[in-house]
């Protein structure tokens, strides 16, 4: 009996070590890897037999979740309290449509946000463009919507910003300087510059020194206050901060910008019941921003519009593939 116990403990330790060696989180689940015909880049606990690049629902109905309380979060920013109040009327609307209590779940980083969904503590989320791919592959996240216009238009741009009085006038002028990127998994804050800038004749990390600020708002404030020489940021975040009066555009200058990318994705965990998913999706797609705090903050959009991860995130996956991105928690952090 003792020998069997020792063997069991040793196997458990080896399995845990292997998980962390691969950059994956050991969530304590004893569920075996899903047997399936197609998995793609999804984590081993998920399957994609239908080829839509997101996790299929659990095959066993007993594994579907229908929690009494739904937890929602929005992409981590420097001042989450602003967004807690801003999203509350919308959370009340989700509660009305689902018959569930809905609470805001505060996270401090993309990794924490995605780990919370993977572990089942988070059910609905708004996740930034680049980390969306990590959430899909590591946490069973199902994006189905983003903010856009009634005509179906959406998007933001990667912008390079500098202080207004900076001698930097073009992208090539960044050579020899220090430039703030946000986080490694961020699209406009890191992945897109590394994929796109070499075509413009400048390579991040070689032609200029990269420092990580931790977020778009931190990068913007750093340039605004003169702490950073330049920064790669999402135009949508800069627009919102300028609209709120947090920064003034007479102290910031845009020296380069890209084509448009999809904005923050909104979706839910793959293992919610089909009935609950349908009610959540209905809440998103029928909520109108006009006259709400979200409408005031996101003034250039009308509401949530339907999208698919396979189509809308194709350019983001191309950028990440170009950069050799592997979807692990180590790379996310």
Oligomeric state of shown chains: single chain
- Helical residue percent? 25-40%
CATH class of the largest domain: Alpha Beta
Strand order of the largest sheet: 2-1-3-10-4-11
Number of strands: 11
Structural class: alpha/beta
Biggest beta sheet summary: 6 strands, mixed
Mind telling me the CATH superfamily name of the largest domain? Periplasmic binding protein-like II
How many separate helices? 12
CATH level-3 fold name of the largest domain: D-Maltodextrin-Binding Protein, domain 2
Average pLDDT metric: 89
Q: What's the alpha carbon Rg, rounded to whole Å? A: 21 Å
Order of helices and strands: HEHEHEHEEEHEHEHEEHHEHHH
| Intertermini distance | 42 Å
As residue ranges, the low-confidence spans are 1-32
Question: How many distinct domains?
Answer: 2
User: What would you say the CATH architecture of the largest domain is?
Assistant: 3-Layer(aba) Sandwich
Percentage beta strand: 15-25%
What spatial form do the alpha-carbon principal axes imply?
globular
């Amino acid at each position: 009996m003792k020998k069997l116990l020792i063997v069991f403990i040793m196997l458990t330790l080896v399995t845990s070590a292997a998980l962390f060696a691969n950059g994956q989180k050991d969530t304590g689940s004893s569920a075996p890897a899903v047997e399936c015909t197609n998995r793609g880049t999804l984590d081993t606990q998920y399957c994609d037999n239908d080829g839509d690049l997101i996790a299929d629902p659990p095959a066993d109905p007993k594994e579907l979740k229908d929690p009494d309380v739904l937890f929602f979060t929005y992409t981590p920013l420097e001042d989450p309290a602003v967004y807690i109040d801003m999203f509350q009327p919308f959370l009340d609307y989700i509660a009305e449509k689902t018959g569930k209590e809905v609470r805001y779940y505060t996270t401090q980083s993309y990794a924490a946000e995605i780990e919370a969904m993977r572990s089942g503590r988070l059910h609905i989320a708004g996740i930034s463009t680049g980390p969306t791919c990590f959430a899909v592959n590591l946490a069973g996240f199902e994006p189905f919507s983003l903010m856009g216009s009634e005509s179906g238009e959406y998007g933001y741009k990667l912008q390079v910003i500098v202080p207004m009085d900076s001698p930097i006038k073009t992208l090539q002028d960044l050579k020899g300087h220090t430039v703030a990127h946000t986080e490694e998994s961020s699209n406009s804050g890191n992945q897109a510059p590394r994929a796109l800038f070499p075509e413009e004749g400048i390579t991040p990390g070689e032609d200029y020194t990269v420092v990580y600020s931790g977020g778009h708002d931190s990068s913007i404030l750093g340039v605004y206050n003169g702490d950073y020489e330049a920064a790669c940021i999402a135009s949508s975040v800069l627009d919102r901060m300028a609209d709120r009066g947090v920064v003034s555009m007479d102290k910031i200058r845009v020296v380069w910008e890209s084509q448009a990318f999809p904005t923050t994705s909104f979706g839910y965990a793959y293992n919610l019941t089909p009935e609950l998913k349908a009610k959540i999706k209905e809440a998103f797609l029928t909520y109108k921003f006009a006259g709400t705090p979200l409408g005031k903050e996101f003034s250039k959009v009308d509401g949530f519009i339907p999208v698919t991860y396979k189509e809308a995130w194709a350019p983001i996956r191309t950028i990440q593939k170009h950069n050799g991105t592997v979807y692990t928690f180590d790379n996310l952090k």
